[in-house]
Amino acid sequence: MLAHGNGGRRMRELIESVFARHLANPSLDVDRDAAPLDIAPGMVPFITTDAFTVQPLEFPGGDIGSLAVNGTVNDLAVAGALPRYLTLAAIIEEGFPLARLERIVRSAARAAEAAGVRVVAGDTKVVPRGQGGGLYLITTGVGLRAQGPAPGMTGIAAGDLVLASGTLGDHGIAVLLARQEFDIGGSICSDCAPVTAYTSAIVPIPGLRFMRDPTRGGLASVAHEIAAATGLGVRLREQDVPVRDAVRSCCTMLGYDPYYLASEGRVIAVASPEAAPRILAAWRALPGGGQACAIGRIDGEAGPVILDTAVGGERFVEELEDDPLPRIC
Amino acid sequence: MLAHGNGGRRMRELIESVFARHLANPSLDVDRDAAPLDIAPGMVPFITTDAFTVQPLEFPGGDIGSLAVNGTVNDLAVAGALPRYLTLAAIIEEGFPLARLERIVRSAARAAEAAGVRVVAGDTKVVPRGQGGGLYLITTGVGLRAQGPAPGMTGIAAGDLVLASGTLGDHGIAVLLARQEFDIGGSICSDCAPVTAYTSAIVPIPGLRFMRDPTRGGLASVAHEIAAATGLGVRLREQDVPVRDAVRSCCTMLGYDPYYLASEGRVIAVASPEAAPRILAAWRALPGGGQACAIGRIDGEAGPVILDTAVGGERFVEELEDDPLPRIC
After folding, report:
1. What is the DSSP letter of A216?
2. How large is the ipTM?
3. Section A64-70 average pLDDT
4. What pLDDT band is residue B325 in, cutting at 50, 70 and 90?
5. Domain membership of residue B90 as a residue range
6. Within 10 Å of residue A316's Cβ, how many Cβ atoms?
7. Is there a contact between A266 and A164 (Cβ–Cβ < 8 Å)?
8. Same domain, A157 and A289
9. Which residue on chain A is closest to B212 by alpha carbon?
């Protein structure tokens, strides 16, 4: 009901019975306006925010709750910070089933626990029927990083290698198939997961230049960001980019390009040729890291983003224009 | 277009031409995943989040942009923290006019400057036509407070006074009239504004127990929160609660109770009888503070929230049940 967002009794009951119950932790006090953050000496807090409007709200391998936690956790992780605190705002459409809300909040709570973050503040709004897509979640995360220089695009140089921590596009295709707009079966699960173990493992390795999670816009958008920021080219090798057979089949059937598909539990890194083998070894030693590999290199000569195709040709990978898959996150 | 939220070229252009242009500051770098926060030694960061779904998006005295900034700034201020950083997430409905978006973002930027906060991170999502109410904004704020004890409800005792920094309910009625659902004219402006000057002025005064901004659910909800948390009663004096004549007239005509109306630029404080005159003097010395006054007291005997009426009777002020004015913030 709209009254669940009005600041009165029903809102208090909703917050207590659903949000506070599942997200309870020593830092969450629903009676306060603002929550204190404990920042250890010598650490710099980093902040990031993301709004989640994925459809459908639940899909194989995750839901909007786990996605809202992991998406923000991962933005902190690829910035080299250890995710610590989250805020969670919910915009709920009038008529949304309470049981479904509770299932999603429980999933968010589990994801927060798995990622080692505490939800310390929240807000709940209810919008009229037809104006909310069911549920939107918005998370803001604070992570901590030791003082000192951090990975960033400014260190990228020609000859550096581009690395992927695992298969790409699983999340995009899992959400697509869950919409059941296409008569395609299959058991593709989203890769939605925290990448903190993957980023923590490689942050200390000298020669690591840059990390990013290839979410909206996929690998192609990360490559274009690198090219735009550095003035260098990015050259990817089609046969080295890890894409599951099932994902590739879906792309072929539907005319999608896997390089634009979102992943929600992967890292793209750029590193010096000396650092790359150490990074890949560190990733491969982690659970789920068996498919980590080098997928391309930074190239001073080539146009912004080039793909060396499996048959020996090359093609431009354009910046994403029209959205092949809206509302993927 | 939906493509403005897809992570590709159009999204980059929208962010550069609207969000980054107006919100530009040395801490905003739209190419990063996460932004660092500078926390001075000895200061504790506090965090809060709020989603804004007000309808209409623009109203006399403010709009969803200034409201999204001030609402979060004020949650930090009443926690005794000095607001410093904001994140801003926008959920935009497909088809929303760019000119209107730009007007609202510009208003948010002005409000941030006036409140002394920097927008350091953001996110943009576009949802299909009919699923977004035009525009939702979600802000998260970080403020700083010196280490040490802070105002809180635990210090409240019977005999303490309840204080208001100005007239109540202006925002609620301004938004209501802007909807033009009722054939009522009038020139009531929202009180939407940062309360930082009001909170900073009184935080150092010994005997200040507690501060809160009476937004959703109004004064009545603040009073019920106090009663629930302390086990004490709150007794308000009808003739002392400052409500503009025009606001009172609207309430009479429409059958609303002004004690439930939202304000977005006011503070309710609880203080010892010794501290109260100092707090009121400090508030009255501030621009716009001329109507600050004591409006009631904490009462160990009475039921949760009692109103001493102007005609000499008393009535219970119930906890808010059904929403008289949905989507006020």
Report:
1. T
2. 0.92
3. 98
4. low
5. 2-146
6. 11
7. yes
8. yes
9. A33
